[in-house]
Amino acid sequence: MPKVIGGSLVAHRDEVRSRVFAALREQLYERGFESVTLTGVASAAGLGRSSIYNHFPDRQALLVAFVEQEAERYVAELDAALAHAATPIERLAVFGRMQLRRLAEFHLPPGQALAGALDPAAYRRVAAHADPISGRLERIVADGIAAGEMAAEGAGGDGTVLVAMVSAALSARRVVDVPPDELDASVESAVRIVRRMVSPSGDEG
């Protein structure tokens, strides 16, 4: 029977997940999901091979659990940051910075590549966590259009095209795949471009 960490089964589960997710996060950052194995994550987390299989039957289950936890944490942090921005254009800048820094943290296959790496059920669970984030961008753009800070692009002037273009810009890995000492400047450049892109006058708003 695996050794119980932390004195209780609940504490043991939380500690195992914490160690495993920390190890997975580092491996995703260093080399991407394609190279992740349960055995490698268990070793990096200081756990036995059987211990990790008791919690995650395969690497897809591990990724889904990790994304679910990270998404919950990220959405809470995003909402807290957005609450301190006074105007829609300022909220867009906050959103853009956080999205790009999040992109820099993880090397998951994008879009269809991720769909190919996961079975359909696992992919749907991972993709579902983009919905709350997309909803926040849609609200920012809608508020920006209503305030006259953003261009009313898209069918019916509802900002559909604008949301799609901003989403694409904030998903560009080339913005964040730079040396660490250049990341801040690259992120700020991208945010300035996004602000100009949404502005009715073509400036930064």
UniProtKB/TrEMBL annotation:
SUPFAM superfamilies for this protein: Homeodomain-like, Tetracyclin repressor-like, C-terminal domain
Keyword Zinc part of the UniProt annotation: no
HTH tetR-type domain ranges (all copies): 14-74
Species name: Pseudonocardia endophytica
DNA-binding residues (ranges): 37-56
Pfam families (alphabetical): TetR_N
Protein name: TetR family transcriptional regulator
Superkingdom, taxonomy of origin: Bacteria
Entries under InterPro entries matching the protein: Homeodomain-like_sf, HTH-type_TetR-like_transc_reg, HTH_TetR, Tet_transcr_reg_TetR-rel_C_sf
Gene Ontology terms for molecular function: DNA-binding transcription factor activity; transcription cis-regulatory region binding
This protein's UniProt keywords: DNA-binding, Transcription, Transcription regulation
Entry keyword annotation includes DNA-binding: yes
